[in-house]
Design brief:
The structure is a homodimer of 250-residue chains. The first copy, chain A, is α+β, with helices and mostly antiparallel strands. The first copy, chain A, has 2 domains: 13-178, Nucleoside Triphosphate Pyrophosphohydrolase (Alpha-Beta Complex), CATH 3.90.79; 184-248, Arc Repressor Mutant, subunit A. The first copy, chain A, contains 5 helices and 11 strands, in the order H-E-E-E-E-H-E-E-E-E-E-H-H-H-E-E. Chain A has helices spanning 13-18, 72-84, 163-178, 194-205, 211-221, and strands spanning 28-39, 42-49, 59-60, 63-65, 90-97, 108-116, 131-136, 148-150, 156-157, 224-230, 240-244. In chain A, strands 1, 2, 3, 4, 5, 6, 7, 8 and 9 form a 9-stranded mixed sheet that branches. In chain A, strand 8 and strand 9 form a beta hairpin. The first copy, chain A, is elongated. The first copy, chain A, starts with 12 loop residues before the first helix and ends in a 6-residue tail after the last strand. The A-B interface holds A 5-7, 23-29, 66, 68-73, 93, 95-96, 98-100, 107, 109, 111, 179-180 and B 5-7, 23-29, 66, 68-73, 93, 95-96, 98-100, 107, 109, 111, 179-180. Chain B binds a DNA duplex (30 and 30 nucleotides) through residues 193-195, 210-213, 215-217, 220, 230, 233-240.
Amino acid sequence: MAERKIGERNNEPEFLAAYDATEFDRPSVAVDVAIVTVMDGHLEVALVERAEHPAKGSWALPGGFVQMDESLDRAANRLLAEKAGLTDVYLEQLYTFGEPTRDPRTRVLSVAYYALVDHAQLDTGAESSLSFGRIDVPWEGETGGPVDARSQQGQEMPLAFDHADILGMAVKRIRGKLDYTPIGFQLLAATFTLRSLQDAHETILGRTLNKDSFRRRMLATGLLEATGERESEVGHRPAELYRFTKRSAI
Amino acid sequence: MAERKIGERNNEPEFLAAYDATEFDRPSVAVDVAIVTVMDGHLEVALVERAEHPAKGSWALPGGFVQMDESLDRAANRLLAEKAGLTDVYLEQLYTFGEPTRDPRTRVLSVAYYALVDHAQLDTGAESSLSFGRIDVPWEGETGGPVDARSQQGQEMPLAFDHADILGMAVKRIRGKLDYTPIGFQLLAATFTLRSLQDAHETILGRTLNKDSFRRRMLATGLLEATGERESEVGHRPAELYRFTKRSAI
DNA sequence: ACAACATATATGCCTATCGAATCTAAGTCA
DNA sequence: TGACTTAGATTCGATAGGCATATATGTTGT
């Protein structure tokens, strides 16, 4: 991360044209949301392309400033609705990023959230302002470090500010939470097969899981129940469809 | 929590005398630290008595406002040093509390941290501005809810603002982290017996642990090594003293 | 010196759980 | 009809945790 002292203005012409930043005695507070989903065996995150400086042309997590009369959770939910048209999704506060130089304009704290959504709920059409980047997890380990994104064509999508750090922490949190809470179904439709749930877990963890152990463990939690229905049109024996019971809302 | 709209001033005389609060378009940002330690089989937290309104006479976590040129981590470390004389202790960001009405004066975000310290490091003398409250965990469960504090004499120490919520989340986080990382030794001196480490774990978790399993599990991590020394003056067979290896710094 | 006592440390056994292999069930497709 | 694919059940061995017990090593009292 570039070193820059607070109060030291960026005097490039583009900056001065785009912003009339003023120093305050309080930081601005933004909420940024990592909207994460699973698609075809990889993690994806929703991104917006920055049209203005700073970091013009690079990609950023959708976010905005907290209004003075709304809570942080409410701001995150509002931004989810405004930027992605999403309501009633799994949303959790992640961490607050507060390096004084993380935004070159003025001091901006970012209260980061992450959301887990079913890929089918996402508007991936061209009319949406959101793009989706494949999350590029470098080492198959703890992933405490920054995480980059790539387009479907494999091009790098450079992330603005410290958003690669936010994304890295989001992946780490989701992985950790998967070990002791069944949050995987937040990424799936209302009914799903055990295999698709395992696929989601494997994608998040970045490693394969034992099929039988996974099945036993999931059924032992008592959090999911068989619907009696089966998937159809699959070219082989169809699997039973399950749903999550009510109290699965963590 | 009392409902109060932002911008609606508290017009009680005491408030007006104590504060000349002004509304801004940005929230103030405070850092509050739950300094947690283990003492005689219970958890303790460092508290300061509020001398002024709001919440005059009740107890609060040590905290203060973030300066414009310091990071959040740095602010937390500074406050630890200023308020408790502590440096080089385990410190981790916990959560950011942002209900608009959490402070009756004006909007204040609290970026909460928790610190784990050896009780022997703490200045519990009368000259210190810090008092210590026993953490009163109501139900032996997940402890997601608010947690109160009591004095050594058993008197309630009512917590100001939403600090009971902060403390509850701190206990929950510490318990969760204990399951997969050996943070317990942050509460102990440089060398310690396995029994004292188990005592610390049991105190944090609020339940007893199997001695042999605990011993096997701890030794299997490879994170601690025998010193060859033994405790002394204990009135029974002295236990071997252990220390943590370098990389134990999580 | 010696016994009584308290706790540390080691060992063996039982059981629950996980991973792997194998087998059967139930669909599609040529 | 038979090959193929994946679902789901069963079995078995390895492993780790819980529990009981035995032994080691110190202090304290007489």
